[in-house]
Amino acid sequence: MAAPLPDRYTRSMDFRTKLLSTLKAVQSVLNVPGVMVIGSEVPNLLQPDAASTLVVSQDVDIGVPVARINDVKAALSEVTELEPSEEEPSVWLPLNPELIEVNFVGMDPENHDATHAFVVEDAELPLLVFGALSLLRQGAILDIEDLNVPVPRLAGLLLEKLLTERVAEKGARDLLVVVGLLTVMRAADLEEIEEEYADLPKELRYAIRSNLTVLSLMQGVDGMPDPQTCRTRVATLLRQLEELEVDGT
Amino acid sequence: MRESLQQRAQRVRSRAAVRAWEYRQRKHSKGVWFRLRRVLADAESAFAIGCSEVKRLEEEGYRTEPVGAEIEPPKMLLFIPATRLEQIPQKRRLRIALDAEFFAAPCVALVRFRAGSL
C-alpha cells in the first residue's frame, strides 16, 4: 500500500528546508556584494506566512551583477554540494536530493533599458542578463537560521514581477508572487514603487498597470495565494500609479 | 555561444516589441480589454440588473462607463453607491471576472472600493 501523501504544511516545510539548505550550500556566492536571491521564494524568505501556499518550482534564482562575475566564479569554487549542468552551466544541479537547483541570472544595474536582454558569454558561467532585473536594488540581508540571505528591496521586485510576460504558468505565478509581496509591503515601499515606476518608459508603465488589472481579476487557484484577498490593495496601487501619469495614458 | 541562452534573450527582446505594440494600441480597439479590466479592478462587487434599472439610474445622474459600448454586444456598466444598490430589488451577484456569466449580463451595476491605502 502506498504511503499517504504528506499534507500541504509538511510539503511546504520540506521545500523551505531544501531551500535553506541550498542557500547554505551557496553561501560563499551570496556573500559576494550585489548578489541576491531574486525569485519567487523571496516572499517566503521575508515572511514564511506571506507565501506559505505559493507553489514554486524546485529551484532558486540568484541574481549576479555582471560586474561581479569573476568574484562569483571564485566563490563557486567553494561550492561542493552542487555542480554546473553540462548542457547549461548557468544552472547548478544538486548532488544530493536534500537540495534544489540553483539558477544564476545576470543583472546589470548600469543598463537602464528594462526591455533589453543579452547573454554574457563565459565558459564557466554564461549569464542571461534580463534588463528588467536592473529594477532590483539591494535590500535586506536576512538572517535566517545562521544564513545571511541578501534579497532585493520590495518595490523593485514587485515592479519586476509585474513586467512578467502574461502567458502560461510562469506569468500567472509571477503575478501571484506579487500577491505575496503585497501582503508584506508597507507604506514606505509604496513611495519607493512610485519613484521607480515614474522613471520607467511609458510602455513599461502601461504593462505594469495592465498586469495589475489582470491580477485584480485572477481567480484563486488551488495551492496558490488567493489574489482576491488583495484586490483592495491592487485598486489602491493602480490609482496611485495613475496619478503619476501626467498625460493620463 | 550558448544557443539556448541566446534564444531566450531573443524571446525577451521580442516580448519588448510586442509590449511596445500593445502600448501603441492602448487607445484603439485592442486596448479595450485593458480598459474593461481597469473598470472592474475598481469594483468591489458586481451585480446583474435589469436594463430598465440602468435607465432609471442614468436619469438619477449615474453615468455608464464608455468601455461598455466598445464591446459587442455592448454592455451597460455603471458604478453606484452600495446604498443605492440596496434599493434595487432584482439583482444577481456576479463574480468580478471576465467570464461567461459576466459577458452574458447586458446591464451590470458596480460598487466601487472605498478609498484606502496600502
Can you tag this structure with a few keywords?
heterodimer; A: 249 residues; alpha+beta; five-stranded mixed β-sheet; two-stranded antiparallel ribbon; 9 helices; 9 strands; 18% strand; B: 118 residues; 5 helices
Write structural notes for this entry.
The complex is a heterodimer of chains A (249) and B (118). Chain A is an alpha+beta fold. Chain A has two domains: 1-152, no CATH class; 153-249, no CATH class. Helices cover 41% and strands 18% of the residues of chain A. Chain A contains nine helices and nine strands. In chain A, the strands form three sheets. Chain A has a five-stranded mixed β-sheet, with helices on one face. A two-stranded antiparallel ribbon of chain A has the order 6-7. A two-stranded antiparallel ribbon of chain A has the order 8-9. Chain A is globular and about 50 Å long. In chain B, 43% of the residues lie in helices and 18% in strands. In chain B, strands 2-4-1-3 form a four-stranded mixed β-sheet. The mean pLDDT of chain B is 91. Chains A and B meet through strand 6, strand 7, helix 7, helix 8 and helix 9 of A and helix 1 and helix 2 of B.
Quick structural overview:
Chain A is α+β, with helices and mostly antiparallel strands. Chain A has helices at residues 8-25, 27-30, 42-46, 69-76, 154-162, 168-184, 187-198, 202-217, 231-243, and strands spanning 36-37, 59-65, 82-84, 91-94, 101-107, 117-120, 127-130, 138-144, 147-152. Chain B has 5 helices and 4 strands.
Produce the secondary structure layout.
The complex is a heterodimer of chains A (249) and B (118).
Chain A: H1 8-25, H2 27-30, E1 36-37, H3 42-46, E2 59-65, H4 69-76, E3 82-84, E4 91-94, E5 101-107, E6 117-120, E7 127-130, E8 138-144, E9 147-152, H5 154-162, H6 168-184, H7 187-198, H8 202-217, H9 231-243
Parallel strand pairs in A: 2-5
Antiparallel strand pairs in A: 1-2, 3-4, 4-5, 6-7, 8-9
Helix pairs in contact in A: 5-6, 5-7, 8-9
Chain B: H1 3-24, H2 32-41, E1 43-49, H3 51-59, E2 76-79, H4 82-86, E3 91-94, H5 100-104, E4 107-112
Parallel strand pairs in B: 2-4
Antiparallel strand pairs in B: 1-3, 1-4
